[in-house]
Amino acid sequence: MGRCNQQPRSAVPEPYVTLQRRAWAEKSNLTQINLDEETLDRLRGLGDPTNQRDIVEVYRPLTQLLHLHMVNTGRLYAQSNDFLGLDVGRTPFVIGVAGSVAVGKSTVSRLLQELLRRAPGSPKVDLVTTDGFLFPNEELQRRGLLDRKGFPESYNRRALLQFVMDVKSGEPRVLAPVYSHLVYNIVKDEHIVVEGPDILIVEGLNVLQPARVEADGRPGLAVSDFFDFTVFVHAEEEHIRTWFTDRFLALRETAFQDDRSYFRRFTDLSDEESTQLASQIWDTINGPNLRQNIAPTRERATAILVKGPDHTIESIRIRKV
């Protein structure tokens, strides 16, 4: 039944198998993990239409696949350690979630965190976003990068890499900086504490960026070198741009109203002016970043969730080799 919903085989072999939503949903009966409506409502992003049907047809099968990867990765590590005569504890299974601004990757990350917590064994699952590793606004201003926030060069790449390495190496307590979307900056002296999770989800725009060549010519390390499974949330740019604009208008009526908000000055704009501003932000920052830096990393992911114009996940591509 599932095979008829797969895309026809290409004459040229490719590393992914693509399942249309119906075929993917048929795998949902492999697990009975569920979310109640109250929890789902709490996890959804602003304007995100994810519903119970999405949980059953998309996220339950993905959770099951992730659990299989986690169990078998742990088994491989244990066998390798036995072979090498090493007496080391199991390190966290690390999942990277990537995608554009406004594509819904934060909702995907929160849903996976909650569902994986309900998997067999009730693993401890932590979630960290790479926003906390952006340079503070003052440093971005000094470097002339304030208008390029979200581009790879706006992150403290070394600090992010060290954080993931420390977690993956089994450090018992690792700190991550905190970013506030309200004040649009790093929150000084505030941290997220990661203490021995079974699973760590790292969500961000550029988590699949390849390694850079160091100044001395040696190849460097990439954050993704320490991931065990990666998810890329994909949609056509025209759709993401619409979602970004809709979200900007919605935030103008909600979070931007807070007196502490960095964007408080935009609340008096008309709908037309707000739409124009959102378009300008997309055309000068988010769009170029998507095309130049984010979209090119899509094919590095283990799983690609492909969304249609209404935010619905229409197909899933899973790397097979």
What key attributes describe this structure?
321 residues, alpha/beta, Rossmann fold
What does it look like?
It is a single chain. This protein has 321 residues and is of the alpha/beta class. It has one domain: Rossmann fold (3-Layer(aba) Sandwich). The protein contains eight helices and nine strands. It has helices spanning 21-25, 37-43, 52-84, 105-117, 137-143, 157-168, 237-252, 271-294; strands at residues 16-20, 93-99, 125-129, 174-180, 185-194, 199-203, 229-234, 303-307, 313-319. A seven-stranded mixed sheet has the order 1-9-8-7-2-6-3. A two-stranded antiparallel sheet has the order 4-5. A hairpin with a 4-residue loop joins β4 (174-180) and β5 (185-194). The protein is globular and about 65 Å long.
- Total number of domains: 1
Overall strand count = 9
Helix tally equals 8
Query: What kind of sheet is the major sheet?
Result: 7 strands, mixed
**Strand-residue fraction?**
15-25%
CATH structural class: Alpha Beta
Envelope shape: globular
CATH-defined superfamily? P-loop containing nucleotide triphosphate hydrolases
Distance between the termini: 24 Å
> The CATH topology is what?
Rossmann fold
pLDDT average, as an integer? Answer: 91
Spans of at least 5 consecutive residues whose pLDDT stays below 50 are none
Numbering strands along the chain, what is their spatial order in the largest sheet? 1-9-8-7-2-6-3
The radius of gyration is 20 Å
N to C succession of SSEs: EHHHEHEHHEEEEHHEE
What class would the helix/strand composition place it in? alpha/beta
Q: State the CATH architecture.
A: 3-Layer(aba) Sandwich
Fraction of residues in H or I helices:
25-40%
